Amino acid sequence: IMLALTTAAASASASIVYLAHNGNSSTNWLPICQQFDNFCQQTSGATVAAFITVVLFIFLVMLSAAMLRRH
Asked: What are the residue boundaries of the Casparian strip membrane protein domain, all occurrences included (predicted)?
């Protein structure tokens, strides 16, 4: 359950970071990273940390499955 929730949160964070960096011309959203550089650095770092957490959870699931298979 935590792997699914973390993956969803990381994906949502990635979409917000993408919009902050590039904007969306069809909805008239301008990129905001030129005005709020510190915000973009923090959200980008949080997104990277979220995806690292997803990889760690995948590793834990695989490790748990291997331990269950042994017993």
From this structure: 1-56
